[in-house]
Amino acid sequence: MAVSVIGAGKSGQAAASLLVQGGARPFLSELGVIAADAAASLESGGVPYEQGGHSGRVFDATLCVVSPGIPGSAPVLLEMAARRVPVVSEIELASWFCRARIIGITGTDGKTTTATLAHDICQVDGALHGYRAFSVGNIGIPFSSKVLAMEPVDIAVLELSSYQLEGSLSFRPDVAVLTNVTPDHMDRYCGDIHAYAAAKFRIHAAQEQGDTLVYNHDDVILRAHFDRQEPWPFRVVKIGLRADTLDSLPGDYVSVDGNDIVIRSFGLTQRLMPVGDFMKPSFRGDHNLYNALSAVAATNAVGVSAEAVRKSLAGFGGVEHRQEYAGKACGLDWINDSKATNVNALRQALQAVPSGMVLIAGGRDKGNDYRVIADIVKEKVSCIVAIGESRQKIADVFRGIVTVMPAGSLREAVDLARQAASPGASVLFSPACSSFDMFTDFEDRGRQFKQLVRELT
């Protein structure tokens, strides 16, 4: 079977390798330049490839696997459609080979933290009961690179972006989690929140009886989607911050009653643990409470023990680059929130950090509407240092609301923030934009920020 793989990033390389191991004949095609180490890996794995453009050979296939960063509007994919060559995502391909149980997690915000915590919970439980937990997907490790190592008793915790879900047709997780849906990637979805949400909803499109869907009932878009179309063929578990608002609703939930996490499962309600046992300075705020509830609901659905959940939650310290405390320098608290690539993630960080902060924000804009956070910026921010391609847009939106200083580099931004901050205040680095104008990715951006803070000390 001849299969074309479009894109030579990590996902494309992993998909090509999986296809070789599965007995197919992949051909990898990259519009840009393939890195030398990637090319060497492809050659050693027996994968033919091309770079610098897509030749006619790429269409001589019965299937096309596309990397998540390539939109459906790309000419090569439009031509695939015209030739009636099926196009699927790397996630879809890997799912065909997967024997393990799958927890799939998506949403605009919180999916990385939720996936990290769910994986940690499963690892603790797996050590007790003899199975392995794999953390794969958008979190940085391609599903295809690990799927053949998975056994039926194992659990794959799979973080999923909307891009990865676009090409998922028969993908069917045992447990699907939707954390929230707010505007993001509006450049790719032409400003249409409904098109973006539809991509997210692909996570449950193939679910059937015996599967479980976990969703945030406090999220307006999710509540409207799931309440409107009840009953569903699969089990539905709601999460929310107040159990009294869910008690009167049918079905199961994971929520908070007083100071405790409570679980209603198949009509029985139990208290799991006090919220205060795991909320801490490195893992705080309502958004992280939602993440914890989602992870508890997901792992409970696959039968993870309450003992493992309590142990994991009590020891969890948050995720790198997500409201990560980067240290104290020059009498200031520095917070690395480089993972914040949209306005809602920035809002969550602003809510969690004390008032009087200096905010460093900006990068490659994704169609952001910064006006929706004007009130909280006015309330909590003393000064904005704007960086990247969006710095002028940020300055235009917040002019007259708060002082805005442009910076030509992250180093300059850190220096300006240090000068502008009052003694004892916080400096929050929460870009609300993608990183690709100045950095390799958000991780590179966050690590550079932390290095600059270390230099200040």
How is this structure best described in words?
- With 457 residues, the protein is an alpha/beta fold.
- The chain has 3 domains: 2-85, 3-Layer(aba) Sandwich (Rossmann fold); 92-315, UDP-N-acetylmuramoyl-L-alanine:D-glutamate ligase; 324-456, Protein-Tyrosine Phosphatase, Chain A (Alpha-Beta Complex).
- Helix content is 36%, strand content 22%.
- The strands form 3 sheets. A 9-stranded mixed beta sheet has the order 7-8-6-9-10-11-12-13-14. A 6-stranded mixed beta sheet has the order 15-16-20-17-18-19. A 5-stranded parallel beta sheet has the order 3-2-1-4-5.
- α2 (36-44) links the parallel β2 and β3 (49-51).
- The longest helix has 19 residues, at 111-129.
- It is globular.
Quick rundown:
With 457 residues, this protein is an alpha/beta fold. The chain has helices at 10-21, 36-44, 75-82, 90-97, 111-129, 143-146, 162-166, 193-200, 220-228, 243-246, 286-301, 306-315, 343-352, 374-380, 391-398, 410-420, 442-456; strands spanning 2-6, 25-30, 49-51, 63-66, 87-89, 101-106, 133-137, 155-159, 175-178, 212-216, 235-239, 252-257, 260-265, 268-274, 324-329, 332-336, 357-361, 381-386, 403-406, 426-429.
Q: Which helices and strands occur, and which strands form pairs?
A:
Blueprint: E1 2-6, H1 10-21, E2 25-30, H2 36-44, E3 49-51, E4 63-66, H3 75-82, E5 87-89, H4 90-97, E6 101-106, H5 111-129, E7 133-137, H6 143-146, E8 155-159, H7 162-166, E9 175-178, H8 193-200, E10 212-216, H9 220-228, E11 235-239, H10 243-246, E12 252-257, E13 260-265, E14 268-274, H11 286-301, H12 306-315, E15 324-329, E16 332-336, H13 343-352, E17 357-361, H14 374-380, E18 381-386, H15 391-398, E19 403-406, H16 410-420, E20 426-429, H17 442-456
Parallel strand pairs: 1-2, 1-4, 2-3, 4-5, 6-8, 6-9, 7-8, 9-10, 10-11, 11-12, 16-20, 17-18, 17-20, 18-19
Antiparallel strand pairs: 12-13, 13-14, 15-16
